[in-house]
């Protein structure tokens, strides 16, 4: 009964924390909005933005992936058609899925690596700001993270078929690059265990089982034979420009983002190979852990392989590292386990108890404080784009809500009441914006001349400012300059009045720490605030 209660507490803790992510984390990447929430909104409600990746001539994204989330959302639509409720319902499903997969890996870690490693991994997972932003995100990279959890559990459990099945599913329907996580497992299967027949038989079986319906669904939607996974590989690897058009970053981009999301677990997990080599030289092995130091390092090899592959790519995005986020906690747990073994070897079992506990509590305290502080900062300081639209009144006529410089913070049509349309007005951004799907039966199959894969903007996507009924604007306190490409519309009171306003933190290098972490009674003294405004055009005709 005590074991049952303990497992129930673990499941409940994971579900509650992940549901907090679903309800309070922000949309941190416009790719999530425009490439996934918007096409999903179109599938469910017949209206939504289409990006060039969904144009049949490019077909980089999969409608099969969207329908994984669309089917349960369709069931909810039988009860309610409220877009905000559907949005959070899908998010909660993703959060619970993540929690259950984490629980599965926790149980297997307990059997294979000992209760200490499993408990430490669980605690670091629960306090991870990276898991907070990724666990409920509608992104193939988050889906790949779920598959990483399933793959690691199957690998440790020596469940070859499951590991191959989930990897094939992820590669075909989610993000094909996610198969990198399974490379060490495949190498072990082929060259150490020499199970060539098992591997190829199961790979072909599950490849066909998943691949055929995925290709059929996508081909139906695109109106031509389509293998989206191959298209995205071709674009990213074999074109002359690929994703570099959307910006290149130095390696410090990942260093900063990973430290914000994983703090001390980033440092410790990257230090694990050094500790392993030291342990191997000294012959130290934790008797409570069935894994030798070298086996632990091999188990962690997907993390180091993934970081190497993506660190050398010029185009970097925070979401690209999502698939290996659970491995930062695992590396830290394994490292702590090895350090405890070193202490027992040097001081003896009795005398090492206090320093081991002190070390464990110190690491957990740092992870907890920085992790929770980061979660609070993101949900408190940057939530305005997801809340400012809530004050839009109901209407029976079509009204336009326009975005200029804030186009990339639009949370999606799920947040707009019926009869409202989001529009884009001219700003300093000259790249490719999304456009509404054709609202016809074959809207996904139409090739439009305004889409391209060169990130070149097109006037079709732009709307006349004079026709906007509402405008979303970030007021940073500047004067109104009508000659500017991005004027501060909020102070043009002749044209606009403020319908809704929410505090929003400005990017100020002098307050970098305060913007990144919430510290009670301290952060607000250093933050520079702006107002995220929903502006209403003056003298609008009465809303019916």
Automatic annotation (TrEMBL):
E.C. code: 2.4.1.-
Main localisation: endoplasmic reticulum
InterPro entries named in the record: GPI_mannosylTrfase
Record field: transmembrane: 85-106, 118-143, 163-191, 203-233, 264-284, 296-314, 320-340, 361-382
GO molecular function annotation: alpha-1,2-mannosyltransferase activity
GO CC terms, sorted: endoplasmic reticulum membrane
Domain of life: Eukaryota
Pathway membership: Protein modification; protein glycosylation
Presence of keyword Glycosyltransferase: yes
Membrane topology: Multi-pass membrane protein
EC class name: transferase
Signal peptide start and end residues: 1-22
Compartments reported by the entry: Endoplasmic reticulum membrane
BP term (GO), one: protein N-linked glycosylation
Key words of the record: Endoplasmic reticulum, Glycosyltransferase, Membrane, Signal, Transferase, Transmembrane, Transmembrane helix
Family: Belongs to the glycosyltransferase 22 family.
Protein name: Mannosyltransferase
């Amino acid at each position: 009964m005590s074991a049952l209660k303990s497992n129930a507490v673990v499941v409940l803790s994971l579900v509650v924390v992940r549901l907090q992510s679903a309800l309070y984390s922000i949309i941190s990447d416009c790719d999530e909005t425009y490439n996934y929430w918007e096409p999903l909104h179109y599938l469910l409600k017949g209206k939504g933005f289409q990006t060039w990746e969904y144009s049949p001539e490019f077909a980089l994204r999969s409608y099969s992936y969207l329908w994984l989330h669309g089917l349960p959302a369709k069931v909810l639509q039988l009860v309610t058609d409220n877009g905000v409720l559907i949005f959070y319902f899908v998010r909660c499903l993703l959060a619970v899925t993540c929690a259950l997969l984490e629980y599965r890996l926790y149980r297997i870690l307990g059997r294979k690596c000992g209760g200490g490693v499993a408990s430490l991994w669980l605690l670091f997972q629960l306090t991870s700001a990276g898991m907070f932003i990724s666990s409920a995100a509608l992104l193939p990279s988050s889906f790949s993270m779920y598959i990483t959890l399933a793959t690691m559990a199957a690998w440790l459990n020596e469940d070859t078929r499951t590991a191959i099945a989930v990897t094939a599913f992820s590669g075909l329907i989610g993000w094909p690059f996610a198969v990198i996580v399974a490379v060490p497992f495949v190498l072990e299967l082929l060259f150490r265990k020499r199970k060539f027949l098992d591997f190829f038989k199961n790979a072909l079986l599950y490849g066909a089982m998943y691949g055929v319906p995925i290709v059929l669904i996508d081909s139906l939607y695109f109106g031509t034979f389509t293998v989206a996974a191959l298209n995205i590989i071709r674009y990213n690897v074999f074109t002359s420009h690929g994703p570099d058009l959307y910006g290149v970053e130095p390696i410090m981009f990942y260093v900063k983002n990973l430290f914000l999301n994983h703090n001390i677990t980033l440092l410790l997990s990257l230090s694990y190979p050094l500790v392993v080599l030291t342990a191997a030289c000294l012959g130290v092995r934790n008797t409570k852990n069935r894994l030798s130091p070298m086996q632990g390092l091999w188990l962690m090899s997907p993390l180091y392989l993934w970081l190497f592959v993506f660190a050398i790519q010029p185009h970097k995005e925070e979401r690209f590292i999502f698939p290996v986020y659970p491995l930062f906690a695992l590396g830290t747990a394994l490292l702590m386990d090895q350090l405890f073994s070193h202490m027992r070897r040097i001081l003896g079992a009795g005398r090492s108890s206090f320093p081991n506990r002190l070390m464990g509590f110190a690491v957990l305290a740092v992870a907890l404080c920085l992790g929770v502080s980061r979660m609070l900062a993101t949900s408190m300081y940057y939530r305005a784009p997801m809340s400012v639209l809530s004050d839009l009144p109901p209407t029976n006529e079509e009204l336009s809500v326009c975005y200029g410089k804030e186009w990339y913070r639009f949370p999606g049509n799920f947040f707009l009441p019926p009869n409202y349309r989001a529009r884009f007005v001219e700003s300093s951004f000259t790249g490719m914006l999304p456009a509404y799907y054709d609202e016809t039966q074959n809207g996904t199959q139409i090739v439009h001349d305004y889409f391209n894969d060169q990130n070149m903007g097109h006037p079709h996507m732009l709307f006349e400012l004079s026709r906007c009924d509402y405008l979303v604007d970030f007021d940073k306190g500047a004067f109104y300059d009508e000659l500017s490409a991005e004027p501060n519309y909020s102070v043009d009171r002749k044209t606009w009045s403020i319908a809704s306003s929410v505090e929003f933190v400005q990017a100020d290098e002098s307050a970098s720490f305060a913007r990144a972490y919430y510290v009670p009674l301290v952060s607000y003294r250093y933050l520079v605030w702006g107002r995220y405004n929903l502006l209403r055009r003056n003298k609008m005709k009465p809303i019916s």
